[in-house]
Amino acid sequence: MCGREAGIPMSEHPDETAAGPPTNRSVSRALRLLRMVARMHGGANASELAAATSLARPTVFRLLVTLESNGLLDRVDNRYVLGWELARLGAMADHHAGFTARAQPRVALAAQQIGETVTLSVCRATNELDIVVQESAQRVGLSVSSMVGMRWPMHASATGKLVLAELDESAARRLLGDDLPRVASHTITSHAQLQKELVTVREQGYATIDDELEDGIVSGAVPIRDDAGTLVAALAVVGPKYRFDPDACRDAMPELFAAARDISQSLGAAPPDTSTNE
Fold first, then answer.
1. SS3 for 15?
2. Quick check: pTM over 0.70?
3. Would you say residue 160 has pLDDT above 80?
4. In this structure, which CATH number among 2.40.170.20, 3.30.450.40, 1.20.1250.20, 3.40.50.360 belongs to the domain 99-266?
């Protein structure tokens, strides 16, 4: 039997039209609201959340009441903010568990399709990215064979530029400090030059380096965002310049973007639910 005939509210019925296993529409919508509240500094009221998520106001109101009653949201001056229970659960979570296991096959496929090394990095609270997965179709070409667990100067790495592009100029400067040390022949060492580069990153949606982190190395990185648009991770491709020049790096971007989209969707962050009625 279907939906209401089976005594199941339509909003609780699994969405069997979506790719992959059936999902619960109400749970998915509740998660969308949580992510949207997290994105809206100072919180948001029900009307703002309904407009931002394109969900019907009665649906939003009912979900907000449920989330608040369970401690996942709090209400301050009639505006919803993330709640104490969400903070408690977040503090207990292993930020890498599950994420890397689900993403690794797609990272490996991207490396195979591109023919070079592809890495997955996850964001930390300190506006840095930790490399947690590395898959190589060929020898990486860097002076180190494994990049997992390593961190690079943000102004000299493709993933670092992605993070910096999320910040305004003053915030980026506070994060980097006054000096931008040279680590390769073409490392950007001027804040003014770096800001011009970050404008390009924002416009094209990805970041590249060429002899900036290590001479003879070219890399490109694309963002992985949640459904609120927040940068949560990054995919990067890296290779030696003699076989992976800047043109080859640009040619690899469509596959890298496709992999980033697939990983985002596998984590439930996309595609958005465009339905407004239950």
1. strand
2. no
3. yes
4. 3.30.450.40
